[in-house]
Specification:
single chain, alpha+beta, 6 strands, six-stranded mixed sheet
Length: 118
């Protein structure tokens, strides 16, 4: 069994690859001054960069779990989400309200992707 871990620190790995499945840990925006659209865009682009670093792209996403800090941000999140994914390539997703650790974070995403052969 081959398991690769990326971005390893004391408490976690940023990504774990096993059997062509990539597990991406919680991603948040670094620009906490941005509105929900800015933070959502930054998080999605960050997930895309992680995918590209191991040979994937946004169309390889299988699922995304979205933790949203404010109910009123749902429409803004969806505007960015809908523009980000080509029609027919959006992953399965779940979105829930959550109290995030840093109150400046408006969204956190956790993703799973299927990768082409590496």
């Amino acid at each position: 069994m081959n398991i690769e871990r990326f971005g390893v620190v004391q408490r976690r790995a940023e990504m774990v690859l096993h059997a062509h499945t990539l597990y991406i840990g919680g991603q948040v925006a670094s620009d906490t001054s941005a509105d929900i659209e800015g933070q959502t865009r930054e998080v999605l682009l960050g997930i895309e960069r992680l995918l590209e670093s191991v040979g994937g792209d946004r169309t390889h996403l299988l699922t995304v779990r979205i933790l949203l800090a404010r109910r009123e941000d749902y429409a803004g999140l969806n505007r960015v989400w809908d523009a980000f994914f080509p029609f027919g390539h959006a992953p399965a997703r779940a979105c829930t309200l959550a109290e995030l650790i840093d109150p400046a974070w408006r969204v956190e995403m956790i993703a799973t992707a299927a990768l082409p052969n590496r």
